[in-house]
Amino acid sequence: MPKVTAMMIVRNEANRYLERCLKALTNYVDELVILDDASTDATPEICLSFPMVKLYCRDTPLFLKDEAQLRHELWHYTVATNPEWILALDADEFLETRAVRELPYLLKQDFFPAISFRLFDCWGREDYYRVDGLWNPWLRGFSIYLVKYQPWLDAAWPLQKFHCGRLPLAYRHLPHLESDLRIKHLGWANPADIRAKYERAVSQDPTFKYMPREHYESILWPADKIKLEKWQD
């Protein structure tokens, strides 16, 4: 099976989903390059408890100031490992369990240099995902998370400090295979996190350059207005 290198940015993830995420990745990833954005908790220690992890640590945080620069740093460390395929996931995202069986077939095919997946935002709990508005994974469609490394491609990111994407621009337009494997995103699963995430989002994008105002406001909608569907394994 081709070598799979995952890459991830983390900051203060010790009490969230990090350990679960890393355990899941051990089932189908050969190595994991992590850039710690100056965590002040036990995040680095958790990362180093997994032998497959190559950890790099910043002394000062950068994510909320210039995400594109941070992503570029992570890419630099990742390609230094001589990867074949690169998987870009966050510490609160999980490919569904059947990925262990199906990823080998996706990686061995020679027709597509990139694989795209749908992301499902679990909302207020881990077993229901959101389907109203721009949260709907069926309307939002596929995004590329897994690419074959091609060193001749340019590694530039867009010149924007937020919502800059996880992969270099050149990789986002590759022919890609749309996989029916789903990504389960738990970033909104804890109700206690939702308001803080809303406040961070609007502080980063006060003029609604990256997302419509209505989408940001929908983060704080009452439960009876939000549409959910049951996650089925």
UniProtKB/TrEMBL annotation:
Keywords: Transferase. GO terms for molecular function: transferase activity. This is Glycosyl transferase family 2. The lineage of its organism: Bacteria, Bacillati, Bacillota, Clostridia, Neomoorellales.
